[in-house]
Amino acid sequence: MEGIAAAAQHFGVRWDGAVNAWLIAGGVYRMGRREWLSEAGWRQMYDDGVRTVIDLRSLAEGQRRETDPLVGAEAMAGIDVVHCPTEDPVNGEFTALVGPYLKDPAHYADYVRLFPEKLAAVFAAIAAARGKVVVHCSAGRDRSGIIAVMLQDLAGATDEDVLRGYELGARGINDRHRVHPAPHTHDPYLDEPALEALLESRRASLLAFRHSLDTAEFLQANGLSAGGLAALRAKLGGSATP
Q1: Contact (Cβ atoms closer than 8 angstroms) between residue 203 and residue 211
Q2: What is the pLDDT of residues 155-172, one digit of tens each?
């Protein structure tokens, strides 16, 4: 597999303040909370052709924190923010399976089973979006990770591509935990041996999920039109309407 340092350099996105921001394919990116972006970061994102940001979080998660930079409306002008939550956080089966939040690819297949319409709505939003698109959750690892794997499947990515994408996301948020002043309650910073052990334990389940799902078939079964699927493929090939 391509060295992770080289992959980070190739797929990493440098928008000021952005955490765990990576190119998925074509004109579609993923990242952590958009509230981490500075005004300069929003302008850089716009200059790179992004016109749509899709928020995968529940409404309760989208609150500004004291440590977030202040961003005026002018800096965000020209970029549509679309709220498209992927889950029902009070679903009893969901919380029994994953605990406080999704954090393991072993649960991705259950997630898709529990919330098919919500996930399909994300892809419809990407298909309909103006310009290049950023999908984001909180950490930029698992909810955006499911979307990334499914987009990679549509784009014909290899298993190595899928594993690399997950590792970039896992390492990206782990590095954020390293420098953040407040330790994360459920996701503490891991040193390299501990992180590698965690990644090794998750690679098989990530690939099992990838091979368990035909993304195009899933999306069409859940309401995405043939035109929508074609628009998705065009974005993954780099075609985006300003």
Answers
A1: no
A2: 999 999 999 999 999 999
